[in-house]
Amino acid sequence: MYDIVYGRRDLRVHVPLSSCTLAAGSREVYKAVEDFINRKGINAEVHRVGCTGLCYLDPWIMVAGRGLPAAIYVNVRHVDVEKILARYLNRDFTGAYALRFKEGNVDYGVPLLDEKPEWRNQVRWVSRNCGLVDPESIDEYIMTGGYEGLRKALRMKREEVIETVKKSGLRGRGGAGFPTWLKWKITYEQRSDEKYVICNGDEGDPGAFMNRLLAESDPHRVIEGLIIAGYAVGATKGYVFVRAEKPLMADRLEKAVIEARERGFLGENILGSGFSFDIEVYRSAGAFVCGEETALIAAIEGRARPRQRPPYPATSGLWGKPTVVNNVETLAHVATIFQFGVDEFTKYGTEKSKGTKMFCVTGAVKRTGVYEVPIGTTIKKLVYELAGGPVEGKKIKAVQVGGPSGGCIPSNLFDLELDYETLQSYGAIMGSGGLVVIDDSGCMVNVAKYFTDFTLAESCGKCLPCRVGMKIMNETLERIVNGEGREEDLEILRDLGVTVIKTSLCGLGGSAPNPVLSTLRYFENEYREHVENKKCPAKVCPKLVTYVINEEKCRGCGVCAKYCPVNAITGVPGKPFTIDSSKCIKCGSCLVNCPFGAVEKA
Amino acid sequence: MSQIGITRVEQEVQVGVARLVDAVVNKYGRSRGKLIPMLQEIQSELKYLPRQALEYISRKLGVSLSEVISVASFYHQFRLEPVGDYVFQVCFGTACYLRGASEVYESLKSATRNTRIAVEMTVEKARCFGCCSLAPVVMVINTKTGDKSIYGRLTPSEARKIALKYSTLTHGK
């Protein structure tokens, strides 16, 4: 078995090289592994892989030696590498997080990864290769069944391809949940000399990075899906739209396009089918509104504004030609559906929404990461069983789902299922699938204001409801968090929120008030505390808290006094300092600059 | 625009910028649709988009200056002001925000202000990097080499130490 899986070497070490693991130091770990192997002269190889999505373990390595179980070590620092490998080769597996597999029925005292709840409860359908294969090798993708889906699709008629996607019930994974087949069918039916398919890899939602992870870890799957989409609608050219700020994602997709072209999966007469098609990777300059399809198209044309729909891109899109815009994850699903069959896909999900979805769970949980689960999984299962629940001593009070277009769901509703319709009826949206968990140390009003700061900055300014409406909502929230809120402010927010949603031109304004409306709906008491009692229950809003110095922690260095702009802090060096709250303007400089963490909020 | 009153240095800069824009326009062709890639390339050379470059490219492409500025000012990637040797980007994604990005930002701001090195170091708020599990995150970009370092799970005082470390780096040279 070892030979089949890992080749003829005596030792193989997998190191994930993707943006998130690199940020956690995996490049240094990679070098340390290489050094170790060279120094010891072992017949071994270091292998680059993508990321599994278990971010809280970064950086991790997997070590597989001949005759030994494959073991995963986590939160590895480069200085630990030598110790870990030496111990492993000595058949000592203490400190391993989990085993990837083992031969025979030996108890090594370390659980299998498959037995861990965060892995066992996932259905790794579209993310199946993530963290297991080299993302820069087309051969490894082909070995796992890659481009078989394309082969099958090219043997079908275009109508049959669209019919297959219809049977699968696949809906857009970028947020709105529009049936993928219908977009394709409308575009297919247009008569035009040119048609385009675009892969939307903009992913501007803060807290959502499943597209980046997928495209960095298994880029060929996305490219294969885009080629199938191109064939189905009769497109001449495809674009992959990706942010220049995510350079590794763009590089890997670009490399995948080049390799696919070399192997005849792109270009003239693909695999002898008579279908000719090519892909260009477009590096955008980054703007949240570009997630919206008309704005994305405008960006490729070199402009910066969304436009009125209809006409929809399916009839008049890029350069006025019929255009399909599909999300990264949607296209990866397409490729996987054609590889493994519709029946495998429809095993999972709900009546209305089939298949699986990748969710990013971040914020106040133990195991932050990306988890792929069937659509219809409850919030509770995702947050507690997979992501491990709250960090020690805290209580989760809400999840924010869907980013700046989504809303907050309070913890008493965690039995809700994650699907498009359910979330929408409770004031949130599935969006691209980012869940930010908020515990009792977070202030819901402050979170709402944070999102209006974001959408206000991202509003393109073309239509009035979004440009001015969001400004007024933002100013109202600003007043509230500063303790200057008025009784009528909550009504202003509600009224205006509904108006902006109803009258905005594009999806950005049409959803921007959601974070405010949903927090008002479920956490009105927190708003009232701010407005009526001028108190922030979570002690987050700077103007509504008082700053005090903890005498036990204070070493009397006087740094706080130096930074205080109004001389409100006094004391004798070497003894605890004090803050005069009548002078204090609550700027927070002392808290930020104290080297000992002695300034606290009360 | 009148050339009177312009210093020799400014004139040199203007010629240099024009030369760069010419080269970029020649590479991409005089196509409106390539405006964003062209601006990206100019910025990667100059680290920001000077006003002269925007004016010159607008004339070259026959696109109004207001249109060029609307594109340049709308997308996050573009800078209209010069930057220092090091840019500190504080991630303001949701997870980072909830875990204290504002305090980290304030701390970096005050650290760079008080060490009289504001010219060499630029501190700015950035969009989500997607490293949410490391929140709060700061990316330090060396604008001369393009090297990037990421620091995660920061407290305000750790951020301060990092800023001071870079300040000794620049002053040590």
Any overview of this molecule?
The complex is a heterodimer of chains A (602) and B (173). Chain A has 602 residues and is α/β, with parallel strands linked by helices. Chain A contains 25 helices and 18 strands. A five-stranded mixed beta sheet of chain A has the order 2-1-3-4-5, covered by helices on one side. In chain A, a hairpin with a 4-residue loop joins strand 3 and strand 4. In chain A, helix 10 (210-217) packs across helix 11 (219-233). Chain A is globular, with a radius of gyration of 26 Å. The relative contact order of chain A is 0.08. The model of chain A has no long low-confidence stretch (mean pLDDT 92). In chain B, helix 1 crosses helix 2 (35-46). Chain B is elongated, with a radius of gyration of 19 Å. In chain B, a hairpin with a 5-residue loop joins strand 3 (138-142) and strand 4 (148-151). Chain B has 173 residues and is α+β, with helices and mostly antiparallel strands. Chain B has seven helices and four strands. Chain B has a four-stranded mixed beta sheet, with helices on one face. Chains A and B meet through helix 2, strand 10, strand 14 and helix 25 of A and helix 2, helix 4, helix 5, helix 6 and helix 7 of B.
Number of helices of chain B: 7
Give the radius of gyration of chain B: 19 Å
Helix content of chain B: 40-55%
Poorly predicted runs of 5 or more residues of chain B: none
What would you call the structural class of chain A? alpha/beta
Looking at the structure, what is the overall shape of chain B? elongated
Q: What does the main sheet of chain B amount to?
A: 4 strands, mixed
Chain pair sharing the greatest interface:
A-B, 56 and 43 residues
Mean pLDDT of chain B: 83
Sheet with most strands of chain A: 5 strands, mixed
Secondary structure: number of strands of chain A: 18
**Span between termini of chain B:** 40 Å
Give the tally of β-strands of chain B. 4
- In N-to-C order, the SSE pattern of chain B is HHHHEHHEEEH
